[in-house]
Amino acid sequence: MSRILMVSSEAEPFAKSGGLADVVGSLPAALQELGHEVAVVMPRYRSIAWDSTSSAYDNMVVYAGAVPYRVDVRTLLYKNVRFFFIEAPYFFDREGLYNYRSADFLDNHKRFAVLSLAALGVAQTIWPCDVLHCHDWQAALTPVYLLDQQHGNPAFAGVKTLLTIHNLGYQGRFHRNEFPDLGLNWGWFTADKLEYWNDVNFLKGGIATADWISTVSPRYALEIQTPEGGFGLDAALRHRSDAISGILNGVDYSEWSPEVDRFIPAAYSAADLSGKRVCKRALLEEFNLPLANPEKPLIGIISRFAEQKGFGLIAGLGPLLKEIDAQWVILGSGDWRFEQLFNDWQRWLPEKVGVWIGFNNALAHRIEAGADIFLMPSLYEPCGLNQIYSLRYGTVPVVRAVGGLDDTVQEDTGFKFQDYSVASLYDAIRTALLSVRLNGSPALLRAAEQCKRDDPKRAAVRLEEIGFQFTRDKTELDPLRGLSVSDAVLGANAARADRATVVKRSGEEDVAGIRMYYERLPAVADRMQPAAFEIAIGVDTALARRLERAEASANVAFVEARAAHAPGFGATWREVRGTFAMFDGVGSPLTQTFGLGLFAPATPDDLDALERFFDERDADTHHEVSPLADPALLALLPARGYRPVEFTTVMHRPLGAADGEAAVPSPRLVTRIMPGDELATWAEASAAGWGESPELAAFMRAFGLLTGRSRGVSCFVAEEDGIPIATGAMAIHGDVALLAGASTLPAFRGRGAQAALLAARLAHAAAQGCTLAMMGAAPGSTSQTNAERRGFRIAYTRTKWRRAAAHP
Known about the structure:
Blueprint: E1 3-7, H1 19-33, E2 37-43, E3 54-64, E4 67-78, E5 81-87, H2 89-92, E6 99-100, E7 103-104, H3 108-125, E8 131-135, H4 141-149, E9 160-165, E10 173-175, E11 195-196, E12 199-201, H5 202-209, E13 212-215, H6 218-223, H7 234-239, E14 244-246, H8 274-286, E15 298-305, H9 311-316, E16 327-334, H10 336-348, E17 353-357, H11 361-370, E18 373-376, H12 386-392, E19 396-400, H13 403-408, E20 415-417, H14 422-439, H15 441-453, H16 456-467, H17 474-477, H18 485-495, H19 522-527, H20 541-565, E21 572-576, E22 579-583, E23 592-594, H21 604-615, E24 621-625, H22 633-639, E25 643-654, E26 669-673, H23 679-688, H24 694-709, E27 713-720, E28 723-733, E29 736-744, H25 753-767, E30 772-777, H26 782-789, E31 793-803
Parallel strand pairs: 1-2, 1-8, 2-5, 8-9, 9-13, 13-14, 15-16, 15-18, 16-17, 18-19, 19-20, 23-24, 29-30
Antiparallel strand pairs: 3-4, 4-5, 6-7, 10-12, 11-12, 21-22, 22-23, 24-31, 25-30, 25-31, 26-27, 27-28, 28-29
Helix pairs in contact: 3-4, 4-5, 8-11, 12-15, 23-24
């Protein structure tokens, strides 16, 4: 048996911002049940009462290089587990764990470097251990400091390190100027250790130096080794692939079980679900929702409000909310846009939606017990705990089949969908609602019984115990042993291909706007009935007008290029009271309007004029509508036969002097602007990245040539050893740079070409005097994720409305 010292930035019940706290709050006690000795080191935050702890060590001095930091160590016993709290008021006596009002503390790199150093001090002077178990980026410097400062210390002879990655999206990334504060020599600032795109990356250092690495579910261990799921660290993780295990998180069923839950109004079990009906009624009363139809399904959401958790998809359900025959209870906090969105839902449909903004542990228990369905459509999910709680409480989970959600929810215990799209989520909800109505308690009973048979906590503990030996080959722990990472992920995806929905998206840009796109939309459009609600996640009107005018100007320039070089298309445009209407040919994604209702109130006369413009050319009318447009459109458009068919996330990023230089990830990779005499080469490379279809490639080749001939456009290429492997375009209008046209040859994806092109375009835009960059992306797409890594932020989500052409 082992002595295990865990190092974590949070643990339930002392400090919590997410699932990390739940795991560190319950796993130590479970390990001790198996005979291990376990202790935990974490900061003493302001929320942890000083007088609830006692002194374990006073005046401990730790050194970050030549800089000394004095800390005290406090302690207490919780669930028979020894907790050590690092007392450093200058770092931890603050409002908030990592940030205040969404702004990260500027000295976070110092705060958690000192946590790692103090943990080594605890291991040396108070609680010697066999294993240092480090959780997430906040503790990831522990194995680094162990090698750097303690490699010859006999107190640490034979001590092994385990790094658990709970969420790869959070890495502890800081400017290189902060590196000297860590007290490490510059030999650690290399590409194989802590350096990442000229920044310091705590998690990368832990990945490079820990003896063993674990993630919180088997599938997530595979996903993070792919370009799509690796958040830029997939190469570093593949390099350590022989030391990575996926170990499913466990749940403390002494806290989360309807038989013993102290927070719910009535206990129940798989054998007797009558108490669940009592819990549902009490929950409806607590949220002031009608009790007239207790059989109507109740959908629950408990989450941090963030794009990662799938709230971009949930927001897309807004226009469909009235036709979803269910009530909703929503608990959480986070991104203010989603907080505002759910408050708007409640004001709009108070008889259907109840909302609690904030964290409330007791209410979370009551939602799990009272809801019929639990919704968790994550963009990515390392493990997730609430879906496991839901199984225990007989609440049917509806989840996206990623990471731990796919590992824990089976076909007979919940509902999973594959594509990250509103249509797929909507279909899954409809299927779950139908099942609950038809099967009622039997469906819930099967889920509860399945959960009772499969105790994920015990499975996690067994894997944890094996993992602490650090002697077995990784494939012995991996349920997908024998498969490569790519084989396993592609195989899992292929198995679900028959569930794919109508709208398909490529890995880099939304292909849905090309050629026959609208022929594939009717099935989606038929399900998206009009509603008196628009996605309310906007910014101020002045910024929206600036962004919409820049995009409209870029499209006007393209249409003018089409008219000049291909007059047979009949390409033209017109303006109607601030709304730009473009005709680029029937079926072209550019045949639409921009700015409707944003620069002037929308009127029936305006819509008549715009519809005539398209009807005269035998084209359907499409309006891209910002959520800050005239609210009268919400009534006008459905009344005139329009249906919502597509959502686009509009993103923006301020530009400054820091954008003037573009870093290149590899000496072999070169980015440059293509001159006019090489435009055909650029168009050919752009077309090659858009699929194998000859028709599609021909369309994109012509599209690329016209893009390059449009005024204000610069065409960028990334070349590896002189061979074009990726393209991107940028149009400048005023002081706004619009980024578009990203395309990468399939054989060269995952090599950083698009990241290099994005940096090159931003640098060029800044050099040309632009103060703002913008782009559009499909909600939740790889393009959106890559842009957010480069500092882009969502301005709002725009809705495209379609009306069929009026034929004479």
